[in-house]
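Risk register update: the risk of archive-format incompatibility is retired. Evidence:
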Amino acid sequence: MGIANRVVVLTASRVANYGLMLVSPVVLAHLFSVEDFGRYREFLLYAGILQTIAAFSIPDCLLYFVAAHPESPWRVVKRAVLLTACSTTTVALVLLVGNRVTHGAFVGPYGWPLAAYTLVAVNLDFWECFCVARRRTFAVFAYSGGRLAARLVVVVVMALVTRRIWTIIWALVAVEGLRLLVSAIVARRAASRAREPPLSESWRGFIRFCVPFGTAAVIALLSRTVSSLAVVKLLGAAALAQYTIGQFGEPVVLAIRNSISAVVLPEMVHRGRATRESPLALWRQATAVNAIFLFPIAVVVARYALPLIVSVFGAGYAHAAPVMQVFMIVVLRECFDFGSAVRAAGKTAPLVVSNTAALVTCAGLSVALAPKYGIVGAMGAYAFASLVDAACLAVVTLRTYRIELRRLLPWGSLTRVVIACMLASVTLFSVPPSGLSALLSVAAAGAAYVTVFVLALYALRVPEVFVLLDWLKRLPHRGAIRRA
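Archived output:
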């Protein structure tokens, strides 16, 4: 399967994997009070942090090591599984002891469910990265789709039947426990049938790659969530509910960006064996494609944040609109995934430095701005910290590939994308069709914007547009697709 197919299928599967975050807030926001919904989001906030710490990005390292050792993929998986088991056990024990010692000040009443959820949700959750590295993207779709269906059904049914947050939480633990059991059976059978040579990569080399990368991922997550932690600790659970709705579109953004990066990274590793310029050229193309997808999303959402939120979640969440508008700065930053360019060169330590700078920036600004400017100030801190992270990694990329600033990004394509966005913006200030609901009016205006935007891209002859068109023509012919 070529790059085009893998990007499209992986994007769909990751949107499915984030489906719980996209669908359940809409349902739960109408079933529970703002305060109760905030408590549920508080559990998910803690769970997300603990999962990232416990996983330590060990499964993500498969994108590099399976591509580097294609003859022994299951030996690589075995190492990843053992490391993950050690890390999850350690995190669960530290969580329980820490919460007991602090008399619940650590995570409050969520200690035991968080420990259980971390153990069952993180262990043996390597399938997505493993299948991507082996270019079996449809398997990713099947795995993510099945997981989504189970979790989504459980959350919605439990919410409708019981209206109790704790029932939903323990039901999620049960679903992930079942997934863990099935994964163990499938992985054992697949590994037992494989006859693979020993790995040339030592445990020391494996750990040397994973530790900086995992540390960077944990720090990156903390830099993304420290503003949320500041909100819940300084402003309360109800404010966290509003803040969460302001980031509602984040799963879609991450699905698009991370899908392209996950497919491109192994290709960059393969190409990097020949020259340094070849993998960077592919990365520039991916950056331009990111901009084509994400720039219009940022513009449309920033323009219609209030009617979107009120229509989907209700008037009680209107305060989240300015948060969502500020969040669009983060969306624009996500187009430039300098981290994958650095990782493709086999370097992970610089990610620790950049994410630490972002964490310190976000923590300091959140504490300073949240008490005075509320949830908008917290989001402003997060947005500025994301720009600090991008600036640090851009400098590292320049040094790693020994290039000048003019060759770092596809400046010509990005300039044309911005011009196309500006030309299409005229449609966003026209009078919406009368007689339509607010949501339908926004949808109509958004469709008009995207239409004009695409036509402008075509008229401006943006090279990546023709690459995308070529991909679309080849999609029905999986066997005929060549590597980009």
